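Students often ask why we bother encoding 3D structure as a string. The short answer is that it lets us treat folding as translation between two languages. Here is a chain of 424 residues written in the first language.
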Amino acid sequence: MTTYDSIQPGVNQTERNRILNRALTRQPDAYLSKIKLYGDIAIYDTANTSEFTLNTIDANEVIWVVSDIDGWWNISEPEMPDLPRGWGDGSYDAIGRYRNRIMTLNGSFLTQSPEDAPVARQALLQALNPMIKNQGASYLITTEFESSIAVVDAQEGANAQFVTYTTGVDLEDGPLIAVGDRIVIEGIAPSDFNKAGSGYLVTAVSDNTVTVDRDTDGNYTGDPYEVGGLIKKITKRLASKVRLSGTPIINNTNARGRHDFSIGLKATDPIKYEFVAGDPDGYATESASPSTAAAVGSGYDGSMTLTNSGDIAVPIIVEIDGLTSIPDSTNRPTITNATSDQSIIVNATGSVASGHKLEIDTYNREVLDVEYVAGVVGTVANGRSKVSVLIDWIYLDPGSNTIELTNFPSGSTVTIYYRSGWMG
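And here it is in the second language, the structure alphabet:
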């Protein structure tokens, strides 16, 4: 700190006043604040199942900050309204659709040295590259939080893989944090938890302490942790499959190495889906093997319950394994969403060969007969003729949806891939 006595003799009074006034002047707040770097925005490459994390400090000590995602929180405009069939002429329902979601990802990166800027720039362009080559095989992911709980102390486990944090509240008084939740901690070295891309896994909660496992995803590096700040629980990760809309703009703004970027993105499906870790495309799955004798027909029945936690109806992908025969040509295998009264009926000639699966995509409105060889996709053929002409392309309404399976052959399995969806 500068004091009056510390000023070297021989400096005139005017210069002394200038030095003291400058020393006592409050410094402006840093534009890029580590406190807010939660690693809550990422670009996910489906081909390599890897995330390029933003709002973080990476392994090269480059600070990445997103200032805005213009268009992410807006509701897309409808392009065509619903047109239900009503003329009895065999025509299909025309389900309305929304316009593409157009977004702009704005932000900055700041390197520790100007010489590091070309490497950081190349890293950003490399993360955007799959959006060009694979025409949208990347997701833009944002993480949302709730519950801000103050941390007052921390204690490491045997090798710092497990860390127990002491908070200022009794966690057993309410559903603030539970075992299985994912959390981030303000003050934690971002280069540690952000490599997993989804925070720390809570392994134990007792009184006012919470224990986390920093090695759940195999990404623990032994980085030091820091105490302080807030615990924030991850509530959901929203993802939208995107591709580039125009040329990315990356401009150098000062000599130190700060660059501002503006990246135009387009999502042909404007719904933002909940991203589920573990699946390359972020789907949750539910399977059922119909085993109850069908009330009508000679096949077997089953059911499952799927929950759409979002605010808009979402499509599903149905995968039917073991459909090597049709038990009853009159009462055919049927998948029904009892909540929305939508059904998919397999034709009497809809069976597939052994080792094949029938896959129904209700978003793209296509049916495929897919051959699997040792678990790997072989041939893929059009299977639209294997289901009824006036098919209902099943969507999941917001909330709980009951899926009923009727008249399926013995040993068959129906798996449904789905994700909760939000529009705003």
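Translate back mentally: The longest strand covers residues 138-156. Keep this in mind for the problem set.
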